[in-house]
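Many groups now describe folds with learned vocabularies. In that spirit, our science desk offers one protein's residues alongside their backbone shape tokens.
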Amino acid sequence: MDARLLDILVCPICKANLEYHKAEAELICKPCKLAFPVRDDIPVMLEEEARHLDAQET
């Protein structure tokens, strides 16, 4: 994933900064406790595509 893109991406729900987890290919929003998938280096920033993080992941 392009570092410049990571600098400008924010959570579509709360506008918080996101953390990229390369191994899982996900962008994490800690305030919302959501993980947005990254498919073929393209972030899927749709709430209905995000998975909810469990307590161990936050």
User: Anything to note?
Assistant: The beta strands are 19-21, 26-29, 34-39, 42-43, 51-52. The mean pLDDT is 93. DSSP finds one helix and five strands in the chain. The chain has one domain: 3-52.
